[in-house]
Amino acid sequence: MSYLFAILFYVSLGIFAVGLALKIRQYWNTPAPLKIPTTPAPTTQAGVVFRMFREVVFFESLFRAAKWTWIFGWMFHLGLALAFVRHLRYVVSSDAFVWPLINNWLVQFAGQYASLMMLVGLLGLLGRRILVDRVRYISAPSDYLMLILIIIITVSGIMMSFVAPIDIVGLKAFMTGLMVLDWQELPSSVFLIIHLGLVAVLAIIFPFSKLLHAPGVFFSPTRNQVDNPREKRHISDWAKNSGLDSADGV
Amino acid sequence: MARPDFEIPELKAETEVPAVLEGTMSHSAPFVAKPEHQEPLHYPAELVEDWHDRAIAKMGDLLGRYRSLRVYLDSCVKCGACTDKCHYFLGTSDPKNMPVGRQDLLRKVYRRYFTLAGRYFPRLVGAQDLTREVLDEWYSYYHQCSQCRRCSVFCPYGIDTAEISMAAREILNDVGMGQKYCNEIIAKVFRIGNNLGLPEPALVDTLEGLEEDVLEEDGVEVKYPLDEKGAEVLLVTPSADFFAEPHVDGLIGYGKVFHEAGISWTLSSHASEAANFGLFIGSYENMRNVSMRIREAALDLGVKRIVFGECGHAWRVAYSFLNTLAGPFDFLDPDYPVPQHILEVTHDLIKRDAIKLDPSANDDMIVTFHDSCNIARATRMGNMPGGQFVIPRDVIRAAVNNFVDMAPETTHDATFCCGGGGGLLTDDLMELRVKGAVPRVDALRRVIEDHGVTHMAAICAICKSQFTKVLPYYGMGMDMIVSVHQLVSNAIVLGTRH
């Protein structure tokens, strides 16, 4: 079982990392031939960074659009971020200089209860998907399955955190062992097996699913472009190469 | 107004989000372009035999050329934030008119042919083969999008359905299934110089008539010059301004402003069109070919500045794309932005006291203002973000004493499209146009009832034509639509400068 999970971890992490890197490279290399920021838009690069910050951290546009979706979506993502930081204690060495930043009461407490916030958010999103006729109409089976997958991951985590504690020293030994190819025994817990197994599944499907919204938002031309088309000429390489640049006297 | 063969929606105090009703607009489709409309744009004359392979190949080509398309087809999480934002959904209840519903028509094919998940688990992720039914559905529903970008304001990833619609229309054109209205018009621009097909003699005639009218009415010799070499300003304006009401009253206003400010200006018969329907069909090449006429006219006439008249998507192409498509404009006066909007010019003159307005001339009106979608969400005026909302209102307030804004959820960047933008301003889409106007007309009716509003000012040729045609369906007068420069024209005090 431990070997199986060790291999699963290498494979899933590999697919995640390579798949995501290829996707980001694809986005990076695809030109944006025209200036299309949704206006009013910032007129400076610093302004764009600030706009993107508000979008990524506070979900500004979603807040304007749909308050319930925003509340549930933001609870889930904030909870996820806090829980993620808490999980770092399983992979960061206690000798590392960041260790005190992770292994302190505040981060661990917030991370533990964040899981409950995540669950509320996820159930809210699932409820909305089922109950609102417009959202139900646009939902494919994968949209439900994705929520259910993450709900099971969250619930299994909550079980280990609040109900059926596991041997976290053993877990850390297993995780840190993976990093140096020194394979250790995985603590036995059905919740842990479910939790880790589904996290691996999530990592594998990440680069092939709508989870690409995570890198995608940073590449969205309506959000990441500076509003300065009159001041600065914007011309893509393919327009130039197709003889569509008037600067060449065409 | 002919008796409509569809039901006219009931107006509400506030536009309500309807329950989903599938297929209510599946019958709606504009006339398909004939060979003579397709060929001047270098598209196949009719649906090609290998349309399936060709459409998929074109999609692949566009995916490699437009980051927006690639990222937007991948990124949607189906959160539903956009589902109640489109005026066509609000007016028709058809879920394929929800922005995400519309995008999914293309996305399901994208997933099937371009993603791993869609190739192996199509049912799971809602992927679908490209069939003739799907192609027809594209034709129908991608011509029910006015590319107004309201959805993109509210999308957490900024997904812009306009980008998807443009790509879809380009694919349709590429397989020989273009839209008659847009393609016929673009061909007219190439052949004659403007959307309406007004040849040079007709323009000369019209402009002379305007000079006579103004002389008769105001006793002042205001000139409306055409092809005048050496003028300082080249004015590029939508060709509807040459004859349609209330557009032409705006053109009269531009002339009075230039006259009073002592700015020499000219129109061009070569570039007698500000509109650029290349945008609507998503064609970079056609959009560029139309734009190049403006560059050529500016060079030929030796002007120092380019100014655009009141037009929504024209200002988008001008403000956001002209420099890209037909620049650099290093041969023009660097002290002025290229191009400028006529409202920026007038606004600046008012602020500098270079022209004088007497707002009491418009005391018979209580005016509200319709933010045009493309100006609101795809451009700017002035040097401050949001200037596109401030400058028109400043000019209106200088020209009228009674101004009232409509509900904030229907103005500024949340404005609703008039219902006729994006290449849909054609009689074969009348049902869509009437129903799509619902959110705007609801808000308009409220200020009419609450504040006694008598007129709605607009700064877009399409908005003006659309409202003129559609408001009567709701029992409102077609003459309640006015050009902003019509208000200026009424209020400007001529002869003070000399």
Question: Can you describe this structure?
Answer:
The complex is a heterodimer of chains A (250) and B (498). Chain A is mostly helical and 250 residues long. Chain A has a single domain, classed as Fumarate Reductase Cytochrome B subunit (Up-down Bundle), CATH 1.20.950.20. Helix content of chain A is 68%, strand content 0%. Chain A has 13 helices and no strands. In chain A, helix 6 (105-131) packs antiparallel against helix 8 (141-163). The longest helix of chain A has 28 residues, at 2-29. The N and C termini of chain A lie far apart (67 Å). The model of chain A has no long low-confidence stretch (mean pLDDT 96). Chain B has 2 domains: 35-178, Fumarate Reductase Iron-sulfur Protein, Chain B, domain 2; 187-491, no CATH class. Chain B is mainly α and 498 residues long. The model of chain B has no long low-confidence stretch (mean pLDDT 97). Chain B has a 4-stranded parallel beta sheet. Chain B has 22 helices and 7 strands. Chain B starts with 34 loop residues before the first helix and ends in a 7-residue tail after the last helix. Chains A and B meet through helix 1, helix 3, helix 6, helix 7 and helix 8 of A and helix 2, helix 3, helix 5, helix 7 and helix 9 of B.
Proportion in β-strands of chain A: under 5%
- Main pleated sheet of chain B: 4 strands, parallel
SSE order of chain B, as H and E?
HHHHHHHHHHHHEHEHEHEHEHHHHEHEH
End-to-end Cα distance of chain B, whole Å, is 47 Å
Shape of chain A: globular
Largest sheet of chain A: none
Mean pLDDT of chain B: 97
Order of strands across the main sheet of chain B: 2-1-3-4
Keywords:
heterodimer, A: 250 residues, mainly alpha, Fumarate Reductase Cytochrome B subunit, 13 helices, 68% helix, globular, B: 498 residues, Fumarate Reductase Iron-sulfur Protein, Chain B, domain 2, 2 domains, four-stranded parallel sheet, three-stranded parallel sheet, 47% helix
